[in-house]
Amino acid sequence: MRLMNHIQEGLANLLSSKLRSVLALLGILVGTASVVAMVLGGELVTNEALKQFKTLGTDLLAVSVSDSSEGGGSAGGALSNLTLPEVLNLQKSDASIVDVAPYAQLYNPAQFNGHSINGSVLGVTENFAHIVHLELAGGRFISMLDGYGFFCVIGDKVNAQIKKLTFFDAIGQQIQIGKNIFTIVGVAKPWPENSFVYADIDSTVMIPILTSMSLSKYAAINNIILRLTPEANIENVQNNITTYINRQVANKRLFFRSAKELIARMSAQSQIFTVFLGLIGSISLLVGGIGVMNIMLVSVVERRREIGIRLAVGAKRSDIWALFLVEAIMLSLIGGTCGVTIGVIIAYVMALFWHWEFTLFLMPPLIGFTVSVAVGIFFGYYPAYKASQLDPIDALRSE
Question: Model pTM?
């Protein structure tokens, strides 16, 4: 009951000095909004970055094969490369490997009706589309039955370039790669660029991997994507793959990228990033807390006579302390609530502007609200204590 009386009196006192209360509220509001917007924005950025990995699945392992700088090569001086059968047999090196999709990158120029096409060439197998979740807008994908055939599937951006040059559907038309003519048999849907795959599929012309090996003597299978079982031991799989490849070809260095490890690493980095943003936002909240303390100290000075009367008629010092502390907490509660709302709105606008998927994480608003209340208690304690320690006689004499 006494708490309710303190709340009612606190509200009345805050309303009696509206301008002063609003100024104190603004400090807490801006500080809380800064904390919530920065922390929630950081979470959205991290979520957007991780989404590209999660869409492919967490059971992927990528292997990049490069020539060792310490290798001496064969007797002829040339380094041997992995053949397609050797790569496909990689699945037998570990029971946790479900699927294998090698790909080779080429830099042969591409043209359509004499016009240059801005894009690269990718030699792929039919498993590639399944593993990287590549869907087709029309036609079919590369098949192992294509062998050394001159067929290709174009990415969405390449298709857009061709549409500017012809009114006809791209499927069935021909595109020139180097000196060879390829027939377009499929068009891929837009694919979100992913750092897990060393290629922008939207800007590629995908051809059979055997054909790509015949187009250039420099073409080699240097990248492999593997799909693993969910319970796979990544370290064991990597060791088995290294042993297998070292038996097939010498003087090669392997670089592994695990989706699970990348997600875990990015999550750890995002936590540091979020804490850093929270600390920056907390500076403005600290300033707001100091503003609350200043306002409450001014209130104590102005209400010295009221405090003296309360003490003279029997009020306890704890009642005076509680009255002023409740006022400070109410300022923080109102400012914190408004700040959390505005912070969420700012994060939502950011998501709309950058075309991110908006997700309302519970932790940022909860942190912002809790910290704002803690700031109110911390900075309201001293003015409340100072008010409770006033001498009744001195307080009554004050004008």
Answer: 0.67
